[in-house]
Amino acid sequence: MNPDLIQIQPWQESAPSATVETFLQRPAFDETAEAAAAKCLADIRTRGVEAVLDACKIFDNAEMTAAEMRVSEEELDQAEAACDDTVKRAIHQAAERIESFAKAGLRPDWTMPTPRGGLLGERYHPMDRVGMYIPGGTAPLASTSLMTVILAKAAGVKEIVACTPSRNGLQVAAPLLYALRVAGATEIYRVGGIQSIGMMAYGAGIRPVELIAGPGNAFVTAAKRQVYGAVAIDQVAGPSEICVLADENAKAKWVAADLLSQAEHGSGHEKSLLITDSYAFANAVKEEVIAQTKIRSRREIIERMIANNGMLFAVVPDLSTDGVALCNRFAAEHLELQTANADMLLPMINCAGAVFVGYWTPESAGDFVAGPSHVLPTGGAARMFSGLTAETFRRRSSFVQFTKEDLAETREAIETFGKLEGLDAHAYAATVRFES
Q: What is the pLDDT of residues 259-301, one digit of tens each?
């Protein structure tokens, strides 16, 4: 790997570096993926399940019948038997922590009194049927099975559909299937890519869902965006990314390992940003990144990401001012605060999918076992969107219960708004209740 591919650049809010500014720009959509998604989804709307099966054959080299799309209980039993005790313990430990966090974040129904004896409030109801996309191409993400399905189950959803691509014919990785069983998926299909999104949204071969959640590649992301409206979606997410804000007390070896944790995902468009106030520390991390890359099993994937301008080190005058400002500008999917005063910096961070506080909190803890879902906004979308929670899978309904006295108190305002907006039927709906 050419060391010059990892640049170390100065940056401050009052005089931003052009190189850093370019790094911060991440395109929201991939035009090639958008076109492919539009074509495939249109075919699914026209031909239904046959189009889904054709797409599986073309894109995943998986030839199957409609009956073979669904993973059977027998296959789930075989997957469970194939997982050793270490794998099962890891899955159960993660599942328990994710479920606890998901349930703790659920909002209770609430009410407040009106001035004249009535009630106002909000009520929450689980969706009936939702769909999850679980990546399984370059890496079978058993953790994503837990980080999505468990949240829907905690919200009270009764029907949870999971789609994941098959590998080597009709095979699905045993740990991924076992994780889906533990999490509570009620239907599992060996269908991936654009075709899985179309299948769930339009009901091609299965009953349609109400919401689709879960991360995916550019093609899955494009498909989710295009079916929005036919179904709800959690968010539009792209390649993984990490930002590490580190002082000279951090360990270069640890920081390098964390930067590489997101570089190995496989699209080649991942981003890893280090922000520090020390050139010496930045150089030490760079040396570690180069050394660690040589021994990683996904070395080629990491080197492709770095060659694609995927890793940059920014040196700022002060971490608590310029450093925090750059963190919020980048609005990373994952942000680590590896500083002695991490607790003090945390309240200053207002744009990040998830924040990992302190030297002993690697991002990978959040990816696998900490509790919050690892389905997070990417590409700067943390300025507009938030990560997946159990609330994503619930409907919120407000309610109004007026007394006669409440309506009498507000009658004049209702009639005034009706007149202002030319909506006399609106106004009369209040007036009529007081006519003799």
A: 999 999 878 789 999 999 999 999 999 999 999 999 999 999 9
Residues shown for the chain: 436
Kindly report whether the global pTM for this prediction surpasses the value 0.90: yes
The pLDDT of residue 29 is 77
**Calpha distance 432→436 (Å, rounded):** 9
End-to-end CA distance of the chain: 87
Convert the pLDDT of each residue in 248-267 to its tens digit: 999 999 999 999 999 998 78
Task: Give the residues of the chain that fall short of pLDDT 50.
Answer: none
The per-residue pLDDT for 280 is 97
Of 91, 49, 237, nearest in space to 177 by CA: 91
Query: Going from the N-terminus, what domains does the chain have, and what CATH number goes with each?
Result: 3-28+238-370 (3.40.50.1980), 31-110+127-233 (3.40.50.1980), 402-434 (no CATH)
Record the tokens describing residue 350, joined without a space.
């207002």
Q: Edge to edge, what strands does the sheet with 129-133 contain?
A: 187-189, 159-163, 129-133, 211-213, 232-233
**Residues labelled catalytic:** 333-334
